[in-house]
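Weekend entry, working from home. Most of the wet-lab plans are on hold until the incubator is repaired, so I used the time to fold the two sequences that have been sitting in the queue since the last round of cloning. Logging both here for the record. First:
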Amino acid sequence: MKITVETIVQAPLSEAWRAYTTPEDIVQWNAASEDWHTTRATVDLRVGGQFLSRMEAKDGSVGFDFAGLYTRVEPMTLLEYEFGGRLALIEFEPSGTGTRVRVSFDPETENPVEMQRDGWQSILDNFARHVAARD
């Protein structure tokens, strides 16, 4: 079973793609709630390339590395990556005056599906706000 979340970004496809794949942007939007943030990010955007986002509670109490390996990279269209034995697929497509971004991923087994869906949706909503604010 995959979990899928999506949003419409009010920006051209090229801007949505760039913001999703650029470390300087990732640290601005990659958090599920106001009390978390991404302190650093790296991206090697090629098949076999690695990515890492260091996610931490703002109070410093806890943190973790969200890291993986790109298994498919089709510029301006899709990213697929493996992380911790799971897979995620991110699709980008023009939609009206913006860009639809859809993320499908294998859930983990430690937290309820609803919690995972809500967290990933919140991150994607932050992404959409970040890209829209750049204009």
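Second, folded right after the first finished:
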Amino acid sequence: MRSQVTTMTNPIEHQIVNTISWTLNVAPQRLLPYTHFADDLHLDDLDLLLLIASLENQLGVYLTREQVAGIQTIGDVTHYFSAN
């Protein structure tokens, strides 16, 4: 059995990627820091807001409107949630 190499450095990143993977039914290997929600995962603004709200509830961290407006990639999400 081959071991899988991961670039995630903390448990929050791992939890975020797993939640997004499960919610969107996308393989976690496809969710890289530069994966764009609109261009790569085809989410519209409402879908992205619902995903962020789900992450906020699960992690107990709530982002400001300005932070949410700045989210475009998986890396943005992990940055904002890890910083809080």
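Plan for Monday: verify the second prediction. The chain has one domain: 11-22+32-83.
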